[in-house]
Amino acid sequence: MFKKFDEREDIAGSQQLKTSVQKGIRNKLIEQFPNLEEVMNDILPKKENFKLIKCKDHMELIAGHDGTVLFVKHRDLPYIPTLRLLHKYPFILPHQQVDKGAIKFVLNGSQIMCPGLTSPGAKLDESIAEEAVVAVMAEGKQNALGIGLMKMSGAAIRGVNKGIGIDNIHYLNDGLWKLTKVQ
After folding, report:
1. Following CA atoms 77, 48, 143, 156 in sequence, which dihedral angle do they give, to the nearest 10 degrees?
2. Name one GO biological process term (predicted).
């Protein structure tokens, strides 16, 4: 999704949000990520305003008061935290782990195939439902290397063991990762 994201070409504009809209977004984020409730004031403080950045292809970015992009929202998808935020608060998303052989493909933006999630070295959480947003971890690595959307449930991935298991949305060194701050 962000493979060729470029700040100069893809960002259409930004706007300061009213306090009531900001409160609504905070509540949606807490509803979607219940683990964030305790740290929400660290991420999006009530006293500080945050921006909504509109991008091409029905994409919106939520940036904190300092310009750091924290969440992404596509028209068809729920809010998705950025990898930088996920590295700071790894408990936000459930984890799926790929084996060492899949790392270079994930970092290249490829979809995560079922065999990469079921082979030795991978850890598949079968309780995660289809269409859930997950952190893509890697065998032997501490931090997430991507964020994806489950195309099948964990149990279906284990049973079928072929095809696309996770749609790779955001990964290390993609366009969104390189976008450090937005003005």
Report:
1. -20
2. formation of translation preinitiation complex
For the chain, domain boundaries:
11-82, 95-171
pLDDT level of residue 8 (50, 70, 90 thresholds): low
User: Considering the domain 95-171, what is its CATH architecture?
Assistant: Roll (3.10)
Give 72's strand partners: 61, 80
Helix H or strand E encompassing 13: strand 11-16
End-to-end CA distance of the chain: 22
Q: What single DSSP character describes residue 181? A: B
CA distance 112 to 37: 30
Q: Does domain 11-82 have CATH number 3.40.50.620?
A: no
Question: Considering the chain, what percentage of its residues have pLDDT values greater than 70?
Answer: 94
- For residue 148, what are the CA distances in angstroms to 38, 40, 168? 24, 22, 4
